Amino acid sequence: MDTKQDSGNAKAASALTPATRTELTHGDEYKMLREEIMLRIKATHQTELFGAIGVGLVYSWLIVHKGNIAPAILWFIGPCLVALCAISCFVNVFEMRRIGNYLARIEEAAFGQDGKLIGWEREQRVQRRVVNAHLALSVSIWALAFVATVWVSWLLSRS
pTM for the full model? Predict the structure, then answer.
């Protein structure tokens, strides 16, 4: 694949206005999908942060108003919030992996079997153990957070 011609095509395609542009290049698609991955990473981090803040606020409110809380089920809002945040994060990770697999195919077409430059997504395939260890750690942390909030909710609902 002639990368000089491709970069020239990408520059020419990007110079066109949206009304006159009729085709999407693989380079454009690659950039768009990498941006999608970056947005999903940001959404995952925000979900983690806002989930932690939300759980803290729920427990703070429940503890302050402990005497006025009749149904014990209210104490289990925290675990529900953790479960929803975990599901949201797992959906984002699943989509990032799916997009990454497609980007690896674009890289295979663009870079071929060049041993020096294989592309980021293909590099991640090579380092699959590290990627899977990171995923396993994330799953473990979410599971631990869920179990901890269930335990705390159970303890607080009893007292």
Answer: 0.75
